[in-house]
Amino acid sequence: MLTQFVPPSLVDAAIEGRTRDRSRRPGPLTMRFAAYFELACALFPHESLEDVCDNLVGAVPELCELAPAKSALHGMRQRLGPEAMRAVFEAVAGPVAGPETIGARWRGLCTLAVDGFVVEIPDSPANRAHFSGPVTRGADGKPVAVGYPVARVVTLVETGTRAVRGAAIGGYLTGEHELAEQLAPHAAEGDVVIFDRNFPSVALCKAFRATGAHLVIRAKKHIGTDRVEVLADGSALVRMWSNAVRGRGPERYETLRLIEYEIGTGEVIRLLTSMTDPEQSVSNGVCKRVTC
């Protein structure tokens, strides 16, 4: 199954010259196998290395009797290294939805979403120094590490296909805004990117708008309150200022359209979008007038 989606030729090209393997003698645990083993670890994150290996090759008659020791699997992963797996990811990640993919587009625009999550990683001095993690205060008032180091991940995903366009990884203290801005080059004209209400920022909007992509961002009530013009449909053009600082030049704000509506519970939902014309829609690459 893995080789159908990630062909061996793609893996070989991606990891060539990027592994830490300096062995001159070929062994049973090749770097190609190591890459597929890493993919299998992602599919079975809660299983032991030995069980992941069995899931990967247990149905292959030539391999099912060969059970590497845990230390061998660990050494294999170390020789593979992160840069090789980064290259495999970048070779696979990218646009998947086509013009006719059902559920992948809204009025001709390919819908994408950005969101973040955290992952606990093995506890080691190097990981803790690089990624950090949650802390508390001890009895003496000094910070004390709690639990494992944590990596923060933000991804850009096609909502219709669940295909990952790009990912950015940082430490526990890295802001999601900073990581999200790194994903802007993976969006393009003809895309509309959806963000939740923790993401609104001028820098983020400018980064994604520079690619030609449109944005739809859920906003808290104190974001985008500087109204410029009320539009015919009741929405309004507003200025979203950087760090809520107003009047310091156009590079410090972004003009967006604010849409507010109330849901059944009485909660008011506020959306900011770069699609400032309430009557403009895009369908099959041709602009037309509709009622939003």
Could you characterize the architecture of this molecule?
The protein has 292 residues and is of the alpha+beta class. It folds into two domains: 2-92; 105-289, no CATH class. It is built from nine helices and 14 strands. It has helices spanning 2-5, 8-15, 31-43, 49-57, 70-80, 82-92, 125-131, 176-181, 202-209, and strands at 105-106, 109-120, 135-137, 143-145, 150-158, 164-171, 191-195, 214-218, 226-230, 236-241, 253-262, 268-273, 280-283, 286-289. Strands 1, 2, 5, 6, 7, 8, 9, 10, 11 and 12 form a ten-stranded mixed sheet that branches. The chain has a two-stranded antiparallel ribbon with strand order 3-4. Strands 13-14 form a two-stranded antiparallel sheet. Mean pLDDT is 88; it is low at 281-292.
Total domain modules: 2
Strand content: 25-35%
Could you tell me the radius of gyration in angstroms?
24 Å
Number of strands: 14
Structural class of the secondary structure composition? alpha+beta
Number of helices: 9
H/E topology pattern? HHHHHHEEHEEEEHEHEEEEEEE
Shape: globular
Q: Quick check: average pLDDT?
A: 88
Task: Give the helix/strand layout.
Layout: H1 2-5, H2 8-15, H3 31-43, H4 49-57, H5 70-80, H6 82-92, E1 105-106, E2 109-120, H7 125-131, E3 135-137, E4 143-145, E5 150-158, E6 164-171, H8 176-181, E7 191-195, H9 202-209, E8 214-218, E9 226-230, E10 236-241, E11 253-262, E12 268-273, E13 280-283, E14 286-289
Parallel strand pairs: 2-7, 7-8
Antiparallel strand pairs: 1-2, 2-5, 3-4, 5-6, 8-12, 9-10, 10-11, 11-12, 13-14
Helix pairs in contact: 2-6, 3-4, 3-5
